């Protein structure tokens, strides 16, 4: 299988997030953040949706983010492995609560700033470009408890201060930035996505879209600051992407598929085009939602649009208006989807659809005509270590091989793609389930769902495969 279509400066690499990899959750003066309150087990999904029992970790619960894979102390070892694979880029996030532990401290926390200085230096030493997300499911808990998180406009200015602080600190080291990870997630998992906590009687939809407006304004102000402070920098938005297919050619299904897509595109329409789309106005009217906007917001949004569109792609989704069909929903991912009879599923029920990757990339490029950056794609699976210590993850190689091939086809279609950072190049805590068993990496980490294990790093078969992919600039997608 050959795919000699990738630009010579294509950014091959991987992607992790502070809250799923770093651990050291109180080290160096760090404050509590969203995931520090997310335990494993049955209550996790309910808390992610905004039913938060307490603003401190509870006795008797296991919080996997507290130690994670201890990237905070072991990043040099991990960076050497990424360099061995030939990474050109690594997407990471900065933990807001490492820089401003309460979110509104008078001065930034030097220990936190220094940690990321050291991390970026280590990356650059290996010729790995940092691609940095400002907020990856991350709000300091103090801001959630005190102000109700993003429902309060105060967060717009606190976030702007945080963004300017890190732009000024790292302007010589980091050229690629993103504002909010999977910004559309706040509609599906509002606590995880935006730190929103609900109580009885709240108008949840109105609160979500008010918070969304505040994030969109904050994103535009961060974009403005990035362009001013780092003139040669690029800053993008980030979408949890994956097109909705109508289950049938019934126009009702087709229309619903369009509406489902727009639910996500709404955010990027604003960040990329600088205006609220017409359909959003109708949506607010139909649902009787009153979103408070300041007079200056329209200009802020219009004048400070993003340079590129970052997106995650794991699977496509399917939708239907037929009550009988809807009974057959897949459990995978947070986006409800009807089971697609043409497609296989992962162990965790996520639809596997490489062609959908090409479709999604084309749709995003057609819609925005801006460069795309694939900043997450991968397969979560449980890996077995054989008696001789090998991890033969051919299923992962197969998934990635087929998706990268379709990405190549999208480039041939005329889609401009800056780079590809596959999700979780080293095993990390799963965001959705909190499990370690759900592994994405080319590098195995000895740790289980209960937090036991040596944390030893071990190369999987896919490690060597991806090294060849990068070395050949995507031309060699074969197994050996």
From TrEMBL:
InterPro entries in alphabetical order: GH, GH_1_N_CS, Glyco_hydro_1, Glyco_hydro_1_AS
Class in the EC hierarchy, top level: hydrolase
Active site: 376 (nucleophile)
GO molecular function, one term: 6-phospho-beta-glucosidase activity
PROSITE patterns according to UniProt: GLYCOSYL_HYDROL_F1_1, GLYCOSYL_HYDROL_F1_2
Record keyword Transit peptide present: no
EC numbers: 3.2.1.86
UniProt keyword list: Glycosidase, Hydrolase
Family statement: Belongs to the glycosyl hydrolase 1 family.
Protein name, per record: 6-phospho-beta-glucosidase
């Amino acid at each position: 299988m050959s795919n000699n279509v990738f630009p010579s400066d294509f950014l091959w690499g991987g992607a992790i997030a502070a809250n799923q990899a770093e651990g050291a959750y109180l080290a160096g003066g760090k404050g509590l953040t969203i995931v520090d309150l997310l335990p494993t087990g049955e209550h996790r999904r309910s808390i992610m949706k905004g039913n938060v029992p307490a603003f401190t970790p509870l006795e008797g619960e296991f919080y996997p983010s507290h130690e994670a894979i201890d990237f905070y102390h072991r990043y040099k070892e991990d960076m050497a492995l990424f360099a061995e694979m030939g990474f050109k880029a690594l997407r990471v996030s900065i933990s807001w609560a490492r820089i401003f532990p309460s979110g509104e401290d008078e001065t930034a926390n030097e220990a936190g700033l220094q940690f990321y200085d050291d991390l970026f230096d280590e990356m650059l030493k290996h010729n790995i470009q940092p691609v940095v997300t400002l907020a990856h499911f991350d709000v300091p808990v103090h801001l959630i408890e005190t102000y109700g998180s993003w429902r309060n406009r105060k967060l717009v200015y606190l976030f702007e201060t945080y963004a300017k602080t890190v732009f000024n600190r790292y302007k010589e080291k980091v050229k690629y930035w993103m504002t909010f990870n999977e910004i559309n997630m706040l509609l599906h998992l509002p606590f995880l996505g935006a730190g929103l906590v609900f109580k009885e009687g709240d108008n949840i939809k109105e609160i979500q879209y008010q918070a969304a407006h505040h994030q969109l304004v904050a994103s535009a102000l961060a974009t403005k600051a990035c362009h001013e402070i780092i003139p040669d920098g690029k800053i993008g938005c980030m979408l949890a992407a994956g097109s909705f297919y109508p289950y049938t050619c019934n126009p009702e299904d087709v229309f619903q598929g369009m509406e489902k897509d727009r639910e996500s595109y709404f955010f990027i329409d604003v960040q990329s085009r600088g205006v609220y789309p017409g359909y959003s106005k109708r949506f607010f009217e139909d649902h009787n939602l009153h979103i408070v906007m300041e007079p200056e917001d329209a200009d802020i949004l219009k004048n400070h649009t993003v340079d590129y569109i970052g997106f995650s792609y794991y699977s496509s989704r399917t939708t239907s208006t037929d009550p009988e069909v809807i009974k057959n929903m897949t459990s995978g991912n947070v986006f409800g989807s009807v089971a697609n009879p043409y497609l296989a599923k992962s162990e965790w029920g996520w639809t596997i659809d490489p062609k959908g990757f090409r479709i999604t990339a084309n749709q995003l490029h057609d819609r925005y005509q801006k460069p795309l950056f694939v900043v997450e794609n991968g397969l979560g699976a449980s890996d077995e270590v054989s008696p001789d210590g090998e991890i033969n993850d051919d299923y992962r190689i197969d998934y990635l091989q087929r998706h990268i091939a379709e990405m190549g086809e999208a480039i041939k279609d005329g889609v401009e793609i800056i780079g590809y950072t596959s999700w979780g190049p080293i095993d990390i805590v799963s965001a959705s389930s909190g499990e370690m068993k759900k592994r994405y990496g080319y590098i195995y980490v000895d740790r289980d769902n209960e937090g036991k294990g040596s944390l030893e790093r071990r190369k999987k078969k896919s490690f060597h495969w991806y090294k060849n992919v990068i070395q050949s600039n995507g031309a060699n997608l074969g197994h050996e």
